[in-house]
Amino acid sequence: MNYVGTLPEKILGEAPHTVPTETAHDNSKEVKALEFHGAQDVRVLYHPKPIITHEKDCVVRITTTTVCGSDLHLYHRMIPELKKGYVLGHEGVGIVESVGPEVKNIKVGQRVVVSAIMTCGDCWYCKQELFSCCEATNNSGTMNTLYGHTSAGILGYSHLLGGYEGTQAEYVRVPYADNNVLPLPATISDEKALSLSDIACTSFHGTDLGEVSDKEGRNTVAIWGLGPVGLLAVEWAFVRGAKKVVAIDNVEARLEIARKLGAVALNFDKEDVYETLMKEFPVTKGPDVGIDCVGFRYNKSWLHAVQKKLNLETDSIDVVVEVIKSVRKGGVMVLIGDYVGYTNGFPIGAMMEKGLTTKGGQVHVQKYWKHILQLMLENKFDPSVVYTHTFNFDQMADVYAKFDAKDGGIIKPIVKTDFANAAVVA
């Protein structure tokens, strides 16, 4: 192979089931990309165009992308190994522009959605459909030291997660194209298809891990955090047969959407969460399943705020503590909000004595996305409820700032590149 680009030739053609995580570029061509330049400093700049780096790659011309709540961890520089000039983003829809010689099922010209999670499809974990645990797509020594293992790589999510350039760009290189892009029917919009990259699958993942259903003992649910994932988890809980869902947040616009979906809305600024849940579930004294869609960045107590400020911990667990306290005895706690490092004061006694089952982890996109796509085509699930604003790509830095500040009622933005000729809604 003799690809033109800046990537050292020596890392091409790696051992079986591994691909280069660093992307090669054609330096003679520049494209727009959203680059990280420091905490709360992201910029749309011209960036060398990514090209095929390995035989199993494809390059996708992005038409539609977005900003995820988990991107805000990067925006605030709270994820390790985030380098200046790195291209962010892990959700995208576009047109396949080029494919490597060993790509079998993806064709140039196809409209596709790109998975946030990079998988090889062939390691032991992928064969068990534990795709976010893939052994081949993340070579981070830091993660291996911190966790004892590495997870799968994630597009646009720092070198801790593989170092792949992200989808907040006009072009993105996708490794293992046969596994990590999904061809789309003409009858589904970019906006709906975009949710398959992450949020539709992550929210389904949370309810799947909790085994939410119409069965006694799994049909009552409380969901902490009503960002896009939390709101879609509310929708999925009802699709799966839940009898009652309580949705917890303090942003009234988000609580109102939860009400429209059929949930009991709980504003934690106005009501005590534990006491309210005890009243909502008087027989079992708590919901069967508690799903944390919040993650490590948010403090509700001064104790964890101070400990984080003093670098005594990396992750706040105020929400985790609330879930453990509130879920019924013998219930399930699901963690799909991001947690990264270490925390203090974990209530291990309560978790053990109450007999709770704890599940969590990054989403197995490839396990769910075909099923979810079919449900969308049958009008049995609609992710559109979370999309509130449309912007063009040149506005990306402003989108981050507004989304971070929860300004103007933004819940989930749609961002169109010049390839999509998007109309702009401020």
Automatic annotation (TrEMBL):
Needed cofactors: Zn(2+)
An annotated Gene Ontology molecular function: oxidoreductase activity
Keyword Protease on entry: no
Swiss-Prot/TrEMBL keywords: Metal-binding, Oxidoreductase, Zinc
One Pfam assignment: ADH_N
Domain Alcohol dehydrogenase-like N-terminal per the UniProt entry, residue ranges: 55-185
Protein species of origin: Rhizophlyctis rosea
CDD domains membership: FDH_like_1 (cd08283)
Keyword Oxidoreductase: yes
The organism's place on the tree of life at top rank: Eukaryota
Similarity annotation: Belongs to the zinc-containing alcohol dehydrogenase family.
Domain Alcohol dehydrogenase-like C-terminal: 228-302
Name under which the protein is recorded: Alcohol dehydrogenase
